[in-house]
From TrEMBL:
This protein's record includes keyword Nuclease: no
Residues making up the signal peptide according to the UniProt record: none
Sequence ranges assigned to domain TraG N-terminal Bacteroidetes in this UniProt record: 6-58
Residue stretches making up the TraG P-loop domain: 416-831
Name of this chain's protein: Bacteroides conjugation system ATPase, TraG family
Record keywords: Plasmid
InterPro entries in the record: Conjugation_ATPase_TraG, F-pilin_assembly_TraC, P-loop_NTPase, P-loop_TraG, TraG_N_Bacteroidetes
Species in which this protein is naturally found: Runella slithyformis (strain ATCC 29530 / DSM 19594 / LMG 11500 / NCIMB 11436 / LSU 4)
């Protein structure tokens, strides 16, 4: 590898400052005999941290650095490299699913995003870096001779100190250090090593490139610009660990972000952010300053600048003595780069603006850009030079470190839902499986709260689509026809009430006629609910008798089947059995109708559901007898939501069907999603079921989901609070800005922390106008909270939309142009096609 100089070419193999990586200890040894241990640093995700957490994180940094002896150096290197999203169209997921997933991947193909890797190096310099200048860089001198590392105790002592440093980070629970081994540092045939990443300015490129120093520094063909912060005078008067991010804040909420993020994730271009410091002897530095102050005094009469310098140094020395402050020498530089010189020049402006925003004076490195790049080679930070170091306190130096990274959700997850991070990067978010395995949640119950216009139904369509694609079984109770199109496209069963096709079920049907105890209990509960009024209590003898009727009914069906007299299981045959055969069984069991069970009253009350009765269609279906086996069933109750009989009976039947499914279907997550219909289920007669379901379904690989629009439905509803909110650790909250002034009520009802409230109130704030239309939601998993974007392809949008005009346009295309083929109609609509009826 050669470095091209306008005057002379230099052989980098000869100049390269790293001597070796020790195979046993993985310690990097420089040609100056400096020892360095390299770590990959896992930092928290951006936009998900509170002010107090930033302070705690900063305390961890300070506490760990204080472990290091005087003279040690820390070099933190954050690499931010632009990349494009590259879908894997050959993946099993895309090959096995319909057009929606495919079109979504096409939509995000080549979407730019910023990849981030954070490395931290601890160096024990062989000689004091404060006695070197940048002019002594090994890049400029070829006569370096490797120094002998003489004493084995040096290695042992260095390793012990590094281990203490690492433990302080890893025990904090805030930041994780993973020590890099020799292969990770040097690379292998298949993996890019640390030095390759630095010299190629890429995470994946295994090639080594020339350095060009003519007309500025070029690295791997990239034009680079470097800004350095090296002087104390460059520092602003005040440095905090975090700052208010105005674009995500409101009049009543404060959204924090780390101070260092301005040169980290918030600088949205190719860049490397180097943060370095030397642990100094504070007493020695104070003594040195005393001598400087004396010299300044002798010239103070002739120079006002000397008086200012005296005042500043006096204040610095007082702070060291009074508060026992840790003194360090610090250096920061930001290198931006791009292959296109014009783009690189634009990035230079972005970097200068970011540095100015922090309160620093941006100073472009010109003659020393090469030596700064060279000094920041992993393991070579001791060559930074004392002329590139500013004296400051440890707390201030670390306040502008980058301590955040982008969302860690992957591009694909076998249980994920497609969303985006706040920068627009697509990611598959797993709310239901991984969080339970990690202990973030205790069950998979969830709530979705989205006021009118927030995109609640659209978001639910997106979530349900991906869950179905991953094999989850979903039973959904809806009011409003928001999921009819999705149901048809996904091959689901859509059960609704129409005059010529009334809603119907058959909870009695089962192929083997041998229900387990849970199924028989569910049927008994259904019958009890049909018999008794709301609030009317049942006696123990009544419960026992109904359970007995159910049991004997199936005994009779099995006996008849064995005799060749197969009777179809349904409410009609159950009623006939109860009327004709069970009285004898009741007497044999010494039952007394006047005391234990009023059989005649039971038959009289249930007569409307028997053939010839007003509701004889409701429980005698011969079509909907396979609901246990179907992955997707929607019960649309819009036409009966106000019916005093059909609505409560139907909802009870749905719940009992779900309970049966819980016990009969094994190996898949069984989800019950209740849309606005849940308000009817919150009546006293259903409160026991809600409590049971919310607390018990987790034991049977189930999940209860409740979707609501109005916050008023939650506030003050004891049943909902006890049965649903307290047992739903997963919450999807959409735009709550309409409730900003009364958000305290929501916080109290949902038991939200101040951190979560600030994050939730940032929803849809600061949206990127250059992205396709999207809305945001907050995902809460216990104490964890992040905001994601809901953005899909135009085709997926056509599948999920609930806007009336758009729904009608798609239906019209399907009926009048595509012979009822809804999929083709959605694709055509997404491409801008409309019938003459809907032409503008």
């Amino acid at each position: 590898m050669k470095s091209i100089n306008p005057n002379k070419a230099k052989n980098l193999e000869t100049l390269f400052p790293i001597l070796a990586v020790d195979a046993e200890t993985d310690i990097i040894v420089s040609k100056n005999a400096d020892l360095t241990v390299a770590f990959e640093m896992k930092v928290p995700e951006i936009f998900a941290i509170s002010d107090s957490e930033y302070d705690t994180l900063h305390d961890v940094l300070v506490r760990a650095i204080k472990i290091l002896p005087i003279g040690y150096m820390i070099h933190k290197q954050d690499m931010f490299i632009e990349d494009d999203y590259n879908p894997n169209f050959e993946s099993e997921f895309l090959q096995s699913n319909n057009y929606v997933a495919w079109e979504n991947e096409r939509h995000f193909a080549e979407r730019p995003y910023l990849r981030h890797r954070c490395y931290l190096y601890i160096t024990r310099p062989a000689s004091s870096p404060l006695k070197r200048t940048s002019q002594q860089s090994s890049l400029l001198k070829r006569h370096l001779v490797p120094k002998e590392i003489q004493d084995p105790k040096t290695w042992i002592e260095f390793t012990d100190i590094v281990n203490q440093f690492e433990a302080t980070f890893n025990d904090s629970g805030k930041v994780t250090l993973n020590k890099l081994n020799k292969d990770e540092i040097l690379g292998t045939k298949t993996e890019t090593g640390l030095f390759q990443k630095y010299f190629s300015l890429s995470f994946d490129d295994e090639a080594l490139y020339d350095l060009e120093t003519k007309d500025g520094l070029k690295v791997a063909g990239n034009t680079t610009y470097t800004y350095a912060i090296t002087e104390l005078n460059d520092f602003p008067n005040n440095l905090q660990n975090s700052a208010r991010l105005e674009q995500f804040s409101t009049d009543s909420s404060h959204f924090p972000i780390s101070t260092g993020s301005t040169l980290g994730m918030m600088l949205s271009c190719n860049h490397v952010y180097n943060q370095a410091l030397v642990v100094c002897d504070g007493d020695a530095m104070v003594n040195e300053m005393v001598g400087e102050v004396r010299r300044h005094y002798s010239f103070s009469a002739w120079s006002k600048e000397n008086e200012v310098s005296i005042s500043a140094k006096d204040a610095f020395m007082e702070e060291v003595k009074a508060n026992n402050r840790k003194v360090v020498k610090a250096h920061f530089n930001v290198m931006v780069f791009h292959r296109d010189p014009e783009i690189a020049d634009n990035y230079r402006s972005l970097a200068a603006a970011a540095i100015s925003k922090l309160g620093f004076k941006p100073k472009l490195a010109t003659w020393d850009a090469e030596t700064l790049f060279w000094a920041c080679i992993p393991g070579n930070i001791s060559e930074i030079g004392t002329d590139n170091l500013a004296t400051c306190f440890l707390e201030e130096a670390t306040a502008i470190w980058n301590v955040e990274t982008n969302y860690q959700d992957g591009f694909f997850n076998k249980n994920g839902v497609l969303l985006t991070d706040r920068f627009g990067r697509p990611c598959m978010v797993d709310p239901f499986f991984a969080p339970l395995e990690k202990g973030l949640i205790s069950n998979r119950n969830f709530m979705v709260i989205g006021p009118s216009g927030s995109g609640k139904s659209f978001t639910m369509n997106n979530i349900i689509y991906y869950l179905l694609s991953h094999g989850v079984h979903i039973s959904m109770v809806d009011v409003g026809h928001s999921y009819k199109r999705l149901c048809k496209l996904m091959g689901g069963r859509y059960i609704t009430y129409e005059t010529d096709n009334p809603i119907n079920f058959n909870p009695f049907y089962m192929k083997d006629l041998n229900p387990d105890e849970e199924t028989k209990d569910a049927l008994a509960n259904l019958l009890m609910a049909l018999w008794k009024k709301d609030g009317e209590r049942s006696s123990k003898s009544e419960e026992v008798t109904i359970s007995s009727i159910v049991h004997e009914y199936y005994v009779s069906l099995r006996r008849n089947r064995n005799d060749g007299n197969d009777i179809f299981p349904c409410f009609d045959s159950f009623y006939e059995f109860t009327q004709n055969k069970y009285p004898d069984i009741f007497k044999q069991n010494q039952g007394r109708s006047e005391k234990e069970f009023d059989l005649q009253n039971f038959l009289y009350v249930l007569r409307p559901y028997y053939k010839g009765g007003q509701y004889d269609y409701l429980l005698n279906s011969r079509q909907n007898i396979d609901l246990m086996d179907l992955p997707f069933v929607i019960y649309e109750l819009d036409n009966i939501k106000d019916h005093p009989v059909l609505f409560p009976v139907t909802t009870i039947m749905i719940m009992n069907t779900y309970v049966r499914k819980l016990f009969s279907v094994k190996g898949v997550l069984k989800m019950l999603v209740i849309e606005e219909a849940w308000k009817a289920l919150a009546k006293d007669s259903f409160s026991d079921f809600l409590r049971w379901c919310s607390k018990t379904v987790r034991k049977h690989y189930g999940s209860l989901g409740v979707v609501t629009q109005e916050v008023d439905d939650l506030v003050g509803n004891a049943i909902v609070k006890d049965a649903i909110i307290n047992n739903s650790p997963i919450k999807f909250l959409l735009d709550q800005s309409n409730y900003e002034k009364r958000f305290g009520e929501i916080m109290q009802t949902l038991a939200l922390s101040e951190k979560q409230a600030n994050i939730i109130l940032s929803i849809n704030k600061g949206k990127n106008p250059n992205r396709p239309p999207y809305k945001e939601l907050a995902l809460l998993l216990g104490d964890y909270c992040k905001v994601y974007g809901v953005e899909v392809s135009k085709t997926a949008y056509g599948t999920f939309t609930t806007e009336r005009r758009e729904v009608e346009e798609i239906q019209d295309l399907a009926q009048n142009k595509y012979n009822g083929n809804l999929e083709n109609a959605v694709k055509a609509w997404a491409n801008g096609e409309r019938t003459t009826v809907f032409q503008p």
